[in-house]
């Protein structure tokens, strides 16, 4: 992963040099006081503590998921220092129907949902980004109103079930497919960043579809990636909608709901997962297996995160300032 | 809200001509608008169920009208008032304990000179924002719960056990620390941007006039953050009745509904889970109306402080 990261970094530098920063980093200004030892130490301890609070739990979860039952027993629960390592939990988990199905369901919902959301949002953001176009202010107001006023939980539930969404996967996608906030971020980019290029293309006779596809999208890759991550994370993490619309169809559950049912609530997993750990009668799944489910919900996020992370500031700030 | 700023007056042309000219733009906007109409605007009309005795078999048109009956039930229901109390209390605790954390963290991070260290810390602290609540709470359970790391340690040293996850008395602190763990890192992003926008010449001039680092913090940095801080406060106050829904849904069974029911979970448990749809809709409508008033009031407050707030009407 480090290799690919470095490549991504260098590419970024060669393709688009960063704009000069307001404040040169890495150097102390001449007028600044020299740092005091106590101050620097306090700063280091605080920031180090912040890092540990985030990283240590993740470390423990990962190590426990990779530990043998013996090493879990010796530790009396979660394993902090790796002792005997094994991939047994992952092997058992990916053989067992429940978790494997849930993983596939989650990946499917995330892929389809993100695609639907991105297509709809990018089109809408571009469609509303040309000032003076027909009805764009009316449509924009229509969008923004929903940020302040909504029917709330029960009327929405009644509409979705009324349309036959109960027990259907689409009820996890369509009701939450449009995030007005995300559309406003995209729109802010589209209406500002490429205005000159768009005008030039229009004079050259390019239509709106063409402009969107060959000018606007390529010049706003960063914000597109950030918004896609926001949508993707939303679908990957969807939990309540499952509770609402698919509470009984356990074979349709995505991973988060499996995590909730079998790890958070500590219900026993169906099937024969416990046999892999020599304890077929146990009510709850073995700890390493539970932690492996936790890790599994983390992995896709950790794969995508490094590539998108560096663009956060652009994405979020446009939203915060122009939204 | 520059989005609402009136654009330059369009050349007044026949609307048919303009529609034909912009038909692809309108077409592009349509799918999103349709989805919003179906899943956001139609439910608005569904709010009339709050004034009915909704029967799933008869639908909205066939259900009996009962006027304000559901609201009378609601206001006479001690469980509802307990949910209101919990919501306000948790919201207040979060405002006091959570709100200053991202500001402080941003100031601290901004003072780190090394680019590489700063970027690394940022990547790490943003991460939990992308975790689901199920994941975050599972991690808390494994660290602080009855069978978690903390109690493993306490037991092995014979200090006894201390189960934070199921203790109603410390629930407010628990959920606030969860929110801090998950969201405080992400929260610094806007403050870092505001810090980067402060003109460095101001610091240099102040230093030349003999202002030390604390005076510079007080007279330059904090005033520079004022606009963002007020905006964030307005958003927080406007959302005072929303304190995190899934977070309470997931932990309700561990601490009991007396402690963990907030307005949103109330609408779910006493509306959908019991098929008492009209009752839940009434609770939801009550929350929406108060929330709108709060947003309006918070925005007025921001204007009183001379800030833009959320919108300028």
What key phrases describe this protein's structure?
heterodimer, A: 323 residues, mainly alpha, MetI-like fold, disordered N terminus, disordered C terminus, B: 313 residues
Explain what the structure shows.
The complex is a heterodimer of chains A (323) and B (313). By secondary structure, chain A is an all-alpha fold. Chain A is 66% helix and 0% strand. Chain A folds into two domains: 54 residues, no CATH class; 236 residues, MetI-like fold, CATH 1.10.3720.10. Chain B is mostly helical and 313 residues long. Chain B has one domain: Orthogonal Bundle (MetI-like fold), CATH 1.10.3720. Helices cover 70% and strands 1% of the residues of chain B. The longest helix of chain B is centred in the C-terminal third of the chain and has 28 residues. Chain B is globular. Chains A and B meet through helix 2, helix 5, helix 6, helix 7 and helix 8 of A and helix 1, helix 2, helix 6, helix 7 and helix 8 of B.
């Amino acid at each position: 992963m480090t290799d690919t990261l470095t490549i991504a970094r260098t590419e970024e530098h060669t393709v688009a040099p960063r704009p000069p920063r307001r404040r040169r980093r890495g150097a102390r200004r001449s007028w600044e006081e020299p740092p005091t030892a106590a101050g620097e130490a306090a700063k280091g301890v605080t920031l180090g503590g912040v890092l540990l609070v985030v990283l240590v739990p993740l470390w423990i979860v990962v190590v426990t998921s990779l530990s043998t039952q013996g090493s879990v027993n010796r530790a009396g629960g979660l394993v902090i220092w790796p002792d005997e390592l094994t991939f047994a939990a992952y092997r058992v988990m990916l053989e067992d129907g429940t978790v494997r199905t849930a993983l596939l369901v989650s990946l499917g919902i995330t892929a389809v949902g993100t695609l639907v959301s991105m297509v709809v949002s990018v089109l809408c953001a571009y469609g509303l980004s040309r000032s003076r176009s027909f009805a764009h202010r009316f449509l924009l107001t229509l969008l923004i109103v929903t940020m302040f006023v909504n029917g709330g939980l029960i009327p929405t539930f009644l509409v979705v079930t009324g349309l036959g969404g109960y027990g259907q996967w689409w009820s996890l996608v369509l009701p939450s497919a449009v995030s007005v906030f995300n559309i406003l971020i995209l729109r802010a980019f589209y209406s500002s960043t490429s205005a000159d290029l768009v005008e030039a293309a229009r004079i050259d006779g390019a239509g709106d579809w063409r402009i969107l596809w060959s000018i606007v999208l390529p010049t706003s890759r960063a914000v597109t990636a950030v918004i896609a991550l926001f949508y993707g994370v939303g679908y990957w993490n969807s939990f309540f909608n499952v509770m609402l619309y698919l509470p009984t169809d356990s074979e349709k559950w995505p991973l988060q709901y499996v995590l909730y049912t079998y790890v958070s609530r500590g219900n026993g997993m169906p099937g024969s997962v416990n046999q892999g750990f020599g304890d077929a009668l146990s009510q709850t799944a073995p700890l390493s297996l539970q932690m492996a489910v936790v890790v599994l919900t983390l992995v896709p996020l950790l794969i995508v995160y490094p590539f998108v992370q560096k663009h956060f500031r652009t994405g979020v700030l446009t939203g915060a300032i122009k939204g | 809200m520059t989005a609402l700023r009136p654009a330059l007056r369009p050349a007044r042309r026949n609307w048919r001509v303009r529609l034909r000219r912009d038909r692809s733009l309108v077409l592009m906007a349509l799918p999103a608008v349709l989805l919003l109409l179906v899943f956001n605007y139609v439910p608005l009309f569904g709010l009339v169920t709050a004034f009915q005795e909704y029967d799933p078999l008869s639908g909205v048109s066939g259900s009996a009208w009962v006027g304000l009956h559901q609201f009378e039930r609601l206001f006479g229901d001690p469980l509802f008032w307990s949910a209101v109390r919990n919501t306000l209390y948790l919201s207040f605790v979060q405002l006091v304990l959570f709100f200053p954390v991202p500001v402080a963290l941003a100031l601290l991070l901004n003072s780190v000179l090394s680019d590489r260290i700063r970027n690394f810390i940022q990547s790490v602290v943003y991460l939990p924002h992308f975790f689901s609540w199920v994941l975050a709470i599972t991690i808390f359970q494994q660290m602080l719960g009855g069978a978690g790391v903390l109690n493993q340690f306490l037991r092995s040293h014979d200090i006894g056990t201390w189960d934070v996850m199921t203790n109603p008395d410390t629930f407010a602190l628990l959920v606030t620390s969860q929110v801090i763990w998950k969201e405080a890192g992400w929260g610094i992003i806007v403050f870092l941007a505001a810090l980067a926008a402060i003109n460095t010449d101001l610091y240099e001039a102040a230093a030349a006039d003999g202002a030390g680092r604390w005076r510079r913090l007080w007279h330059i940095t904090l005033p520079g953050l004022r606009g963002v801080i007020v905006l964030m406060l307005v958003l927080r106050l406007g959302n005072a009745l929303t304190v995190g829904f899934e977070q309470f849904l997931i932990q309700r069974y561990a601490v009991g509904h007396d402690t963990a029911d907030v307005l949103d979970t109330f609408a779910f448990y006493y509306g959908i889970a019991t098929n008492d749809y009209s009752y839940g809709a009434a609770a939801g409508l009550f929350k929406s109306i108060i929330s709108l008033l709060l947003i309006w009031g918070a925005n007025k407050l921001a204007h009183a402080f001379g800030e833009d707030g959320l919108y300028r009407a």
